[in-house]
Design brief:
This protein has about 450 residues and is α/β, with parallel strands linked by helices. It has 15 helices and 14 strands. The model has no long low-confidence stretch (mean pLDDT about 95). Bound molecules: 4'-deoxy-4'-aminopyridoxal-5'-phosphate (PMP). 4'-deoxy-4'-aminopyridoxal-5'-phosphate binds near residues 117, 145, 213 and 272.
């Protein structure tokens, strides 16, 4: 037919993709069997793929889209900025104004923008090292903090590698990780206060920062306890180490980030995801005296730090509009929708009568198959090989029924969503739970 555009199918595209991209993907997140799905366009909380299938997006680019897709105010602001230029070897006003905004919102003295969460965590670790003059970091077993060698250690620990819980092994993620990297990382069990303190005490005087995510996704998406955070805070005060929060995901949980959950404050905070309004972003922020190590004004910064696209004006324009729209009432409303979603998913688990539980807070949740009570630690939460297969079946069922989930069985809400989308989520999950029930029961 004249004017008809022939579109490739997912299979066609993937066949071409594997010829030029390792495994056919640029990020393992989108990889799935038999092939990834390719997007045509998206608006609000609906994503339309290249075959015209529409799905509700509960993944939101791994928790990074707080307003869903193509929010008109963001599109308009970004378009205006693109017309004025996209990147300069000079400063821009938006960089100053957005820094002022985020510092006020998060209670930070200073902030530096980078391009990803990985980079934000890397910069945070380097800042902590320079400030303290120490090389080691402590981090929680199982926590994902991006791809920096040190931040990665023990992220993928499993029963065959993790060792004794009193001395968790330093497990490399990538083959060829230098032994020197492993030697400089102290691994602690998340939310296990006594054990963590015992481990930290063995490294007194050598740790630059204790790095924790206040609600680590990979560990199990349950918040750090007040006791755990207070103990780490107290220990770092006595020891001269810094307390560093990775809020790349959790900044969405409260107006000023999940740090607001705790009576004590971290010295440094890494951010990313939602603060870019849909564009690649990262930032490290914190105390003036600590952030001073980045200051080049006397010609001798302790951490010389640059980045060709850092503080990119397109990103920061999108980010500032997005965060201004995600004001206190919007945060409250979305967190209430999160409470509603968690209770609906619990209800679906009850109705389907399967062994599973729900964790999460704010606008985030995670389903744990095979765990009738919510797990409280990484070793408890980590699914075995068979449960991981069943989880994949659940994700496929959801996709086939118009719901995009995060591949751990997690959900991130966005502001265009209402009770109707939550109803659909729980309806589809109920169907999925019923479909996987025989396999889940056989596993026991
Ligand atoms: N920290 C956390 C807690 C994350 O979830 C992620 C990304 N999933 C990162 C850091 C890394 O961010 P990015 O993918 O933007 O490098």
């Amino acid at each position: 037919m004249p004017g008809t555009v022939s579109r490739p199918s997912h299979e066609d595209l993937y066949r071409d993709a594997v010829k030029v991209l390792p495994g056919g993907v640029s990020r393992n997140t989108i990889f799935r069997h038999p092939h990834p799905l390719y997007v045509e366009h998206a608006e609000g909380c609906v994503v339309t793929d290249i075959t015209g299938v529409r799905r509700l997006d509960f993944a939101n680019n791994m928790c990074s889209l707080i307003h869903g897709h193509a929010h008109p105010a963001i599109v308009e602001a970004v378009t205006a900025q693109i017309r004025k230029g996209t990147a300069f070897t000079l400063g821009t006003e938006i960089e100053v104004r957005y820094a002022e905004y985020l510092c006020e919102r998060g209670g930070f003295d200073k902030i530096r923008f980078v391009n990803s969460g990985t980079e934000a965590v890397m910069a945070m670790i380097k800042v902590a090292r320079a400030f303290t003059g120490r090389a080691k970091i402590a981090k929680a077993e199982g926590a994902y903090h991006g791809l920096y060698d040190y931040a990665e250690v023990s992220q993928t620990s499993g029963p065959s590698t993790w060792g004794d819980i009193d001395h968790p092994a330093r497990v490399p993620v990538a083959r060829g990780t230098p032994q020197g990297v492993l030697d400089d990382v102290v691994v602690i069990p998340f939310n296990d206060t006594e054990r963590s303190l015992q481990i930290l005490r063995r490294h007194a005087g050598t740790i630059a920062c204790v790095l924790i995510d206040p609600m680590p996704h990979r560990i199990g998406f349950f918040p750090a306890t007040h006791e755990f955070v207070a103990a780490l805070h107290e220990w770092t005060r006595k020891d001269g180490a810094l307390l560093a929060f990775d809020e790349v995901i959790t900044f969405r949980c409260e107006y000023g980030g999940a740090q607001q959950w705790f009576p004590v404050r971290p010295d440094l905070v890494a951010m990313g995801k939602i603060i870019g309004g849909g564009f690649p972003v990262g930032a490290v922020a914190g105390r003036d005296d600590v952030m001073k190590v980045l200051d080049p004004s006397d010609g001798k910064p302790l951490v010389p730090h640059s980045g060709t696209f850092s503080a990119n004006p397109v990103t920061l324009t999108a980010g500032k509009v997005a965060m201004e729209l995600f004001d206190e009432p919007a945060v409250t409303r979305l967190n209430e929708l999160g409470d509603h979603a968690r209770s609906q998913v619990w209800e679906a688990i009850r109705v389907a009568d399967i062994p599973a539980s729900v964790t999460g807070a704010g606008s985030l949740l995670r389903v744990h198959l095979g765990k009738p009570t919510p797990p409280r630690g990484y070793r408890e939460a980590l699914p075995d090989a068979e449960t991981t297969k069943i989880l994949k079946a659940m994700l496929d069922y959801a996709l086939d029924n118009g719901i995009i989930l995060i591949n751990t069985g997690s959900v991130a809400l966005s502001t265009p969503m209402t009770g109707a989308e939550i109803d659909r989520l729980s309806e589809v999950l109920l169907g999925a739970f019923r479909a996987i029930k025989p396999r889940l029961s056989a596993r026991e």
